[in-house]
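Fold this complex.
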Amino acid sequence: MTKRKWNGWLLVRLAFSAVVLVITGWIAYLVWDPSGSGQEGTASAASLFDTAGQSPYKAGLPSEQGFKVFAETNSLQLLVDETTAHFQVVQKATGNVWRSYPNPANWKDEKISGAWKNNLASPIVVEYVNAKNYKSSSVTNGLVENQGYLEDFKQKDNGFTVTFAFPKIQFKIPVEVTLREDYVETRLIDSGIVEGELSLLNVKLYPLFGSEPSTGQEGYILLPDGSGSLIQFQSDRTMPQLTYNESVYGPDLSYYNEYTDRQRIAMPVYGMKSGEQAFLAIIAEGESYANVYAAPAGSVGISNWVTSEWQYRKRFFQSVSKSSGEGFYTYSGDRFVSDSRATRYYLLGPEKSNYAGMAEVYRNYLIGEKGVTPIKSVKPEIPLYVDLVGADIEKGLFFDSYLKATTTDEAESVVRQIHERGIGHMQIHYAGWQQDGYSTHGGYLPVDKRLGGNQGMKDFIAYAHSLDIPVYLTADYTLNTNGDDGFWWRRDGLRNLAGTVLEEQLNPDQDASTYVSPKFYRKVIASDLDAYKALGADGIDYEGGIAQEVITDFNSRYSASRADVVQIQRDILQQSHETLGSVVASNANFYALDKLDHVHRLTGDYSYDVFVTEPIPFAQIVLHGLKTYTLEWSNVRDEWDDEFLRMIEFGAYPAYVLTGEQAENLRRSYSVWYYSMNVKDWLDRIEEEYAQANEALAPVQDRFITDHRTLAEGVKETVYGGDYRIIVNYNETAYVQDGLTVPANNFIVVKGGA
Amino acid sequence: MNNRRLWMLPALFLLLAATNLVLPSARIAASQLPYDTYYKDGFGQLVRTQAAYVPASVIGQDALLSPDAAALQGGEAKARALNQPKDLFVDERDHIYIADTGNNRIVHLDANGSLVQVLTVAESPLKKPSGVFVDKQGDIYIADTGNNRVVRLDADGKLLKVFGRPESSYLPASFKYDPINLVVDKRGFLYVTTLGAYQGLVQLDPEGKFIGFFGPNKVAFSVFDAFKRFVYTREMYQRELKKLPGAIANATIDRDGFVYTVTKEIETDQIKKLNIAGLDQLAGKSDFAALQANRSYGEVLHWQRDMSPQLNDVTVDASGNITVVDSIWNTVSQYDLNGNLLFFWSSDVITATSKTGVVKTPAAIAGNSKGELLVLDGTNNLIQVLRLSAFGKLVHDANALTQEGRYEESEPLWNEVRRQNAQYTPAIIGLAKAAYKQEDFERAQQLFYEAGVTGGYSESFWQNRLEWFQRNFGLLMNIVIAASLAFIIGRKLKPRLQAGARLRLPAIGPQSFTGRLSHLLVLVKHPIDGFYAIRYEGKASLASSLVILTGAVASFGYMEASTSFVFNPKVQIGVDLIPITVQFLGIWLGWVISNYLISSLLRGEGRFRDVFYSSSYALFPIILIGIPVTLLSKAMTLNELSIYNFLKLAIAIWIALLFVWMVQGIHNYTFIEAVFIIALSLLALTIIVILIFILIALSNELVNFINSLYQEVIIR
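Structure:
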């Protein structure tokens, strides 16, 4: 009896010790990693480098005499120096030269010292890190610093291929340069990249292409910042050390993002004008993995330069404590692999060497290669866009309370009142119609009963259709707050690199909403589309993430890379378009453009960086005549007059966000805090603004903007073809020039003439 | 052991990166200034508004390094950008003077930001000058901190006078004279801000004679300090950290001669508007004075709770609007001449870049005649110029009319403000004042209620009540006459009625439910005997005491939620009854438990249920007086505040006495014993609460610790 009991006790103790030992051993194994797989890899990588047989890359610029003609088209010529793999593009008509390296005329004035001087002259600059060591910081270097050399330099049709070898850090990066009819294309070949022990973070290929110092000529860098902004060539700039570096299609929330509070890059383009020559760079392939990096004169060297920074790994902040925010920085493990990574440099001669010319190139690219079709037929009057807010919720102690703003009956009355003011061409976007209002996501259908339910919505849509007014239902499927649609956050939430489900919180006093895996929301939308059709909706107005946010999903069930997410969103738009006939998205990234019928609330602002000298309507110049677009809602403007004039200057149509007359106070609502939305406060303004905008913009609805420029400080001119110009004067005094008078804070339309 | 150390090692490499963790939201609005502008009403609720000021330009390096500017500084080699500038002054011509502290000079720019001259005072060089002031004649006064003096220069920079440390027997020998800033009034008197001088500004006459200290702050003296002074010995108290009033950080002067000061490291009255006698003109002037007994300036957003704002500088515009900058949260707050908030805005600190309109370290602020604000950035060495927006101008114009008492003229402007921003409270207040002026008291009352202004509401209500009395005077008189007649007749009929009533009333058994409830009447007349009866005669049951407790809680909730807005402004934003009720019940239950525990230790005779029952019964004044007082409050104005307060006090005193008598009655104590037991019970209650808090805090820590340990193991 006693004996047996004693034995059992021993067994338990032995089993427990065994478990502890196994766990300890397993953990030690994980930490120690005895297989030494890293070393094996190193040995194999090292054997690939043959430093003895190669002449190392020389510091300094290539000699101008070493360049040979490699390729030629009707307008361009590609000259290449075989010893450095640098190239020149010559425009045959003008003799203008764009170099892939700094302008030799100013190289002697280059004050930057050491490694960076070599980097500026290098055809390729890489950033890498020793990812195995948490303490190590990243290093940015070119070929010279790494005893680099060129390997397999080969001439091919229209260009050349070469592999840049970095023996010291054991990287090999093959690239290709090709000359086409009106552009030169640089391309990284991901399949051929060799990596040793160190981790490649990003690559800048021919970073100084087309760069020029500020002295000697006028010029600017064009950034795709917001609607577009310029950094004029300038010496003695304020805070010269600042640079611009942003991810194309916005930051990826699954990684660490340095907080810059900048506008998202919606267009994968950038450009530079210097003197009478200019180039526009379009990141044509693999743009989801690219950053746009700009260094105005004085920040990194005396040149103004702007380039694509190709991302291979991103930084990540690994938090280990929820309460204190402690953690450490690490990097994503595997390299991002893209089928192709290509930047095209379109070269512009004197007649097109400005941002309007660049916009034209991009517009033609969108039409020719991206399948974007220009507007075909237009009504005689411009459209007015009205966003109606159905309802929202307010944070309560235990339950959120429902704030009703516009029922379907009231929506009818709003539309009637506006229609009675003589505005026939209108488009309605109805938001906050779903279950529990605007800030509740998940289980959108049926329409909330408190607003009138499905039947109320059908009646409203039928009424709108009787006036020939289309109704779009606004929806954001990228968040979920209530677990409906079969969403379980643990299973279906979007996860970051560490596997944490991402959440969004607009304000620390509110509940967070969960991000949904893209592959999951694609499923949900596909099953909801028929219900939209049954309601009679003319389309969906996608707000939030779709067409706007590109976030890598590390949820193993639904894993999707940035490029996958872009494709998923395009599929969704395509499918919505097919089922409902039309689709709209807010402030969309340009990859969605061919699927959209209208871009809503397109940004008309920039990020207020100190180095930006002038915001410009680049996106609008590209879009006008291609797609309709609006700027921020008129009744949410900071400044009524200035932003009305900006709307006219940018060729945008008016848009309002309104509620019915009986709306509850939405001040404390989750997201619809807007200053003043009651329709009765705005009818007069809508009528007045619409009349003015209609008069100016109705005749040119299907025309492209052919030029845009600053006539004097605060006076801007937008040109629609040769015979139609709009001049806007933001100043407090009238603008008088060449017999034209633009009154203060007003605009004029000039028709006819050249 | 060794193993464990191996584990701890990576933990040492942890980086503290809490501040970098802010996730950038991709869902930013299309039009997006680098900061959001807010208003905060009397209840502390945020209201977003259109931007009051928008970024206009930046005056930076190029102002001093351009070829022209370099020539003025004696060639390119000698040209220098600003270096840790500390002060900014804009004169009447809008010329800008910057105390370029790090370069030991004053920089003088014209209205366009082009360099006019650089002042170093060659005959007696400046050393770390950190303040500058220019008077009407164009004479330049400099707080030359490094030389412990103030200097006066003429417009061209020639030295006129040096003000060293003033000689005066009134100036304590220990006083350190480190001038960091100064203002000069019309008479030529100097008000010098000195580093850490809690005595106030040093006031000097034009000859440099010491006049006195001007506008000192008061020492904050808390109840705790009083306790310490009472308990501590004299030596101990003196050894405590010396309690000093806050030192004035900066000052400015307006065209009427008011001196404005801002003070750091104090919690209230950070801004003072001092008249010539040194009296604060802001105290009690604001519309929400009734709501904000201790007025704090320098606004913060709700989530910026962990650090209070530190106001660095103040500027006043032509209409008397006061603008201050806070160096902790980079917030700019603007108040009108009576200290009513108009706007405030702040932006997140971004390390990666610098934006037009956003300062990293606000060193000084000044305004010019165009209504622009200039904010000096001490880290980025530049000036951010902010332009008044159309909305800001509209609010300024409307508010100026209201402050001048031209209410009718202000009405259309406020209407426009309200149309553009339906939630902006100053517009509602402005419209309410206009309605009051036009004797539309109904509307005024309603608007004042909406805005949450009790004073105005009470006055409008007074007018409306008067009108109601006047209108219904006849009816009221008839009711009074009818009531008196009924009373007289009733008295004549009384004996007969009583006889009848006595016959019909059902007999109330003492042990029945109603009988137990009616025991309350005994408690009113003979409280001690009544409580004694609860203990020994079973005069209360669980059911009856629960009914009374529920009634008391309900009445308490009713008082909190339904008392007139005049006496209970928070009803305007809606009172959440659940937390109040939980709190009330929690304290009550805590009392019951602690009293039972204490008394059972100290020969108390009451059982737990007796304490429970009688503590419920003792709450009945809340029902008896509370409900009528709440109803009555709806007919009262602030003029009858004393009556209202008296009635509320009566409830409190009665309940307190009932509790004493209760302890006496059920535990059979003397009065003194009862008071002692109550004191002990309260102490026990406090200890219980503290223990609960500690337990919660510790278990939270434990959960966090285990969680981070788990994370470490999983990740590495």
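The two ends of chain A are 113 Å apart (CA to CA).
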